[in-house]
């Protein structure tokens, strides 16, 4: 079975099974109704057409969500057919094929009831899919009428071929439908001067973008980034800036979105927004979110952001100010995440941060639980500190801002909820705080402060106790490196057994020793 190109809605799997069944129940009962009615749609009279179009504007998001859910069900059922066919369970193959036939017809009729201006290509593809589904159902029905193994074996290859064709037509139709809907929404943004219509279209675009990278590529290819930046350059739409920027951040997770951003001087627009004090904090925060997205170190296609370097000092200055004046944890998280990513993006950013007294601002923010209230925020702060710690001048700033105490506290970072994402963030905080200590401890004053604050016993505990570091190898390596640096500056701080096992051997040997330790060894 070929790929159905529907990664966009697979997140629907990750819900409670009973809740999922309740949501699907309506679709399933509609499916049975469609069997009886032979999928004949109720026509809309011409004089009712305007009313239909008007009402559809209010539920574009809902209609698209219904379409994506139906598409998800169909793709799941097609996969199920392939599995049942492999096991030659002909009765199940036929029953699931009938369901797919009904779902396809329901999906097409539902879509045609709320869309307009469908292309001839789309209608042709709909007809091809419906015909092929009917042919598919007839094939599988014929298989139930014989028990001859040889005949069934010969028919299996035909069914496989038909299944592949149905999957291909279905994937092409969904691609065409989503492209068509993106075009409609972008046309509304382009042609409408109405605040309400523009807000509705941007909201629908954001909803689409949340369905995954595939949808983001479609929106970007159809000019979504260009249209959204056009909104951000018009003062009459200022109240829509936060929502528009949030949508841009979603779309710019794909390469096509980044290329479009570069073409329309998006970096310059973001710099203007961030440095304009007349904008709201929400607008500044969402602009910071776009910066965080496009500078993410996980992306492999940031090299073309040449214009970013031209505006970097302005952007970094504005982000530091946003961190300093943040009224909530969310605002601080977005601004600090952007700064953290920028320190990976270009080393010059660290020097700018040092000049802006950013170290003092970030260390002060960490003592304010209203602003730095989660491991995610601390992860961003310690990332900035780790990247800045390569600069020699950084050590004095750390001492002045009581930063060694903060790094020591971060070595104790633990998740309170057990949530996997939060646990991973805590591991990163522990790892990066150890890395920062290792880098800064080349300065005798920092090393002395770390020893006085009992960093050595804590690092030993993290090395020897797997549960303290949540069995993280990256935390272990960072702690071994920090411990070895401190041991050079203060050899009296270690017992002989710790020195012989954790400091004296090669790093890889100490690592292997610690990873093989049982908890009872501690």
Automatic annotation (TrEMBL):
GO terms for molecular function: cytoskeletal anchor activity. Residues 13-57 form the Protein inscuteable homologue LGN-binding domain. SUPFAM superfamilies: ARM repeat (SSF48371). It holds the Pfam family INSC_LBD. GO terms for cellular component: apical cortex. Residues 70-522 form the Protein inscuteable homologue C-terminal domain. SMART domains: ARM. Coiled coil: none annotated. GO terms for biological process: apical protein localization; asymmetric cell division; establishment of mitotic spindle orientation; regulation of asymmetric cell division. It comes from the Eukaryota. This is INSC protein. It comes from Dasyornis broadbenti (rufous bristle-bird). The lineage of its organism: Eukaryota, Metazoa, Chordata, Craniata, Vertebrata.
């Amino acid at each position: 079975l070929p790929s159905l190109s529907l990664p966009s809605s697979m997140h629907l799997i990750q819900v409670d099974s009973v809740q999922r069944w309740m949501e699907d129940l309506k679709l399933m009962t509609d499916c049975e109704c469609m069997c009886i009615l032979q999928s004949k749609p109720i026509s809309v009279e011409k004089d009712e057409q305007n009313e239909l179009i008007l009402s559809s504007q209010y539920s574009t998001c809902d209609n698209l969500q219904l379409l994506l859910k139906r598409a998800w069900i169909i793709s799941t059922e097609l996969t199920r057919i392939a599995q049942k066919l492999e096991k030659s369970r002909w009765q199940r193959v036929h029953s699931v094929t009938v369901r797919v036939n009904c779902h396809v017809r329901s999906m097409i009729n539902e879509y045609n009831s709320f869309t307009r201006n469908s292309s001839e290509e789309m209608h042709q593809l709909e007809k091809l899919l419906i015909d092929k589904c009917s042919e598919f159902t007839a094939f599988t029905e014929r298989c139930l009428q014989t028990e001859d193994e040889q005949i069934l074996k010969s028919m299996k290859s035909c069914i496989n071929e038909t299944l592949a064709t149905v999957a291909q037509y279905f994937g092409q139709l969904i691609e065409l439908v989503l492209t068509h809907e993106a075009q409609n929404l972008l046309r509304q943004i382009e042609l409408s001067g109405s605040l309400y219509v523009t807000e509705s279209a941007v909201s629908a675009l954001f909803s689409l973008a949340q369905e995954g990278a595939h949808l983001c590529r479609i929106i970007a290819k159809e000019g979504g980034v260009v249209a959204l930046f056009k909104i951000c350059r018009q003062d009459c739409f200022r109240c829509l800036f936060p929502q528009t920027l949030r949508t841009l951040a979603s779309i710019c997770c794909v390469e096509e979105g980044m290329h479009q951003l570069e073409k329309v001087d998006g970096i310059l627009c973001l710099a203007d927004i961030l440095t304009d004090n007349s904008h709201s904090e929400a607008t500044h925060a969402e602009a910071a979110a776009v910066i965080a997205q496009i500078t993410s170190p996980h992306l492999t296609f940031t090299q073309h952001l040449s214009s970013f370097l031209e505006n970097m000092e302005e952007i970094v200055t504005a982000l530091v100010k946003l961190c300093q004046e943040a009224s909530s944890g969310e605002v601080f998280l977005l601004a600090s995440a952007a700064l953290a990513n920028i320190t990976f993006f270009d080393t010059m950013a660290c020097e700018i941060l040092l000049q802006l007294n950013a170290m003092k601002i970030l260390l002060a923010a960490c003592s304010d639980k209203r602003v730095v209230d989660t491991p995610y925020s601390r992860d961003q702060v310690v990332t900035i500190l780790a990247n800045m710690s390569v600069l020699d001048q950084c050590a004095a700033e750390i001492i002045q801002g009581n930063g060694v105490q903060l790094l020591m506290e971060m070595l104790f970072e633990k998740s309170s909820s057990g949530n996997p994402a939060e646990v991973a963030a805590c591991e990163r905080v522990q790892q990066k705080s150890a890395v920062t200590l290792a880098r800064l401890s080349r300065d005798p004053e920092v090393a002395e402060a770390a020893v006085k604050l009992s960093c050595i016993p804590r690092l030993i505990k993290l090395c020897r106790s797997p549960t303290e570091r949540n069995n993280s190898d990256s935390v272990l390596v960072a702690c071994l490196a920090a411990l070895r640096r401190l041991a050079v500056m203060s050899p009296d701080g270690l017992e002989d057994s710790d020195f012989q096992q954790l400091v004296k051997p090669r790093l890889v040997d100490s690592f292997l020793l610690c990873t093989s330790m049982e908890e009872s060894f501690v």
